[in-house]
Amino acid sequence: MVSDLPSSGPSDNTLLRVRGLSKRYLRGALWQRRVSVIAASEVDFEIPAGQTLALVGSSGSGKSTVARCVAQLESPDSGQIWLDGTEITRLSGRDLMPLRSSVQMIFQDAATAINPRFSAADVIQEPLRIQGHSRGEQRDRAEALMREVALSPDWLSRSAMEFSGGQRQRLVIARALALRPKLLILDEALSGLDVSIQAQIANLLLDLQEMHRLTYLLISHDLTLVARMSDRLAVMSNGRILESGAIQQILRDPRHEETKSLLSSARDAESKFTLSAGASA
Predict the structure, then answer these.
(1) What is the pTM of this model?
(2) Tell me: the pLDDT tens digits for 24-70?
(3) Helix (H, G, I), strand (E, B), or coil: what is residue 15?
(4) What backbone phi and psi angles, to 5 degrees, belong to 49?
(5) Strand, coil or helix: 79
(6) Domains and CATH numbers, the chain
(7) What is the DSSP letter of 59?
(8) Strand order in the sheet with 52-56
């Protein structure tokens, strides 16, 4: 692996540090011989507080597995995950509760992440209710968050399903911010949106990051989006990080063939979009 990660412990400013994270799955039907598949192998990276690391790679490269392990939705087979100085891989049960507030995950399909029977207020207030906040606190926080994500507080009583796709993603972002997390994991969170809405949500996330000093782990295959939002980049393939470093450094001088292929695909896609836009103008 080509990497510029330090070999020693994290700096004082490091919010998230991952060392030697590995995860395998058993694949195959019960009546067949099950095969062990490596989803992540000896993955190392760290993110300073307030910055964004993009984890990119083709489908099946292991990006989402790493994200789910960081969020403790799955347990790694080995390795360490440190969040704000605490090794969270050793925690379980009640000890994990503070983590649930500090780390939030936003997925690609906002519609499936929202209870269709919920109003916008229900969506945002649910984590606050679970944490025991008063009704007044829940409502005040929901109104403030609607404003932060550029939605009208007057819409809190609306069904979440009345919102457009981009608005629902804003609603999911508001819910993720309800407990004032330190780390947001964006797992292909913008890939289901059209280009113009994607740009708006990307700008919103950048504004929120500056406002709240949020740290982002951005999971994506879209290097155009990554270049816009990230400080650092790590490229994955077959469960391993092939190279990592400052975003502009890797985009300017990619060392691995997988990175070069991703860059080439991104440039082709951007060119086709530009040609299409010009033809329809």
Answers:
(1) 0.87
(2) 988 766 666 778 888 999 999 999 999 999 999 888 889 999 999 99
(3) strand
(4) -60, 135
(5) strand
(6) 14-113+183-271 (3.40.50.300)
(7) T
(8) 103-106, 183-187, 215-220, 52-56, 232-237, 240-246
